[in-house]
Amino acid sequence: MQAQKSNESLNDVLSALADPIRRAIVERLSRGPATVGELRSPFSVSAPAISRHLRVLEAAGLLAREKRGREHWCSLVLEPLDEVDDFVRRTRGFWDAKLDQLAAYVEE
């Protein structure tokens, strides 16, 4: 059951990162917290569209929001990215081993 939950979480994170605007938001948040307005400013999309992107990132566990007065501040949550990093590392290790075996076979 834990593996299924982990796979669902990984799917949510990868799905959230599939969109270029959301990746740009994550990149911006990697430099520190920002208001929703600051996150919206580089894009020519509506405020509701940015809000939808932020909700997707939040649902994937990549974003935390905090209301300070009238402003909503967003910050990056790194733990879900660790899960992606682990997946990539495991997959890379598998394929590196397979390619090494193929190279040894070809050299014979």
Q: Can you describe what's shown?
A:
- The chain is 68% helix and 13% strand.
- The protein is α+β, with helices and mostly antiparallel strands and 108 residues long.
- The chain has a single domain, classed as Arc Repressor Mutant, subunit A (Orthogonal Bundle).
- The longest helix has 29 residues, at 79-107.
- The model has no long low-confidence stretch (mean pLDDT 89).
From the structure above, extract its key features.
108 residues, alpha+beta, Arc Repressor Mutant, subunit A, three-stranded antiparallel β-sheet, 3 strands, 68% helix
Secondary-structure blueprint of this entry?
Blueprint: H1 2-17, H2 20-29, E1 34-35, H3 36-40, H4 47-59, E2 63-68, E3 71-76, H5 79-107
Antiparallel strand pairs: 1-3, 2-3
Helix pairs in contact: 1-4, 1-5, 2-4
Short account of what is shown:
The chain has 108 residues and is α+β, with helices and mostly antiparallel strands. It has helices at residues 2-17, 20-29, 36-40, 47-59, 79-107, and strands at 34-35, 63-68, 71-76.
According to DSSP, the number of beta strands is: 3
Give the CATH level 1 class: Mainly Alpha
Can you list the strand order of the major beta sheet?
1-3-2
Assembly state here? single chain
**pLDDT < 50 stretches:** none
**CATH fold descriptor:** Arc Repressor Mutant, subunit A
How far apart are the first and last residues' alpha carbons, in Å? 44 Å
N-to-C series of helices and strands: HHEHHEEH
Q: What composes the largest sheet?
A: 3 strands, antiparallel
Radius of gyration: 18 Å
Average pLDDT number: 89
Question: Roughly how much helix do the residues carry, as a percent range?
Answer: 55-70%
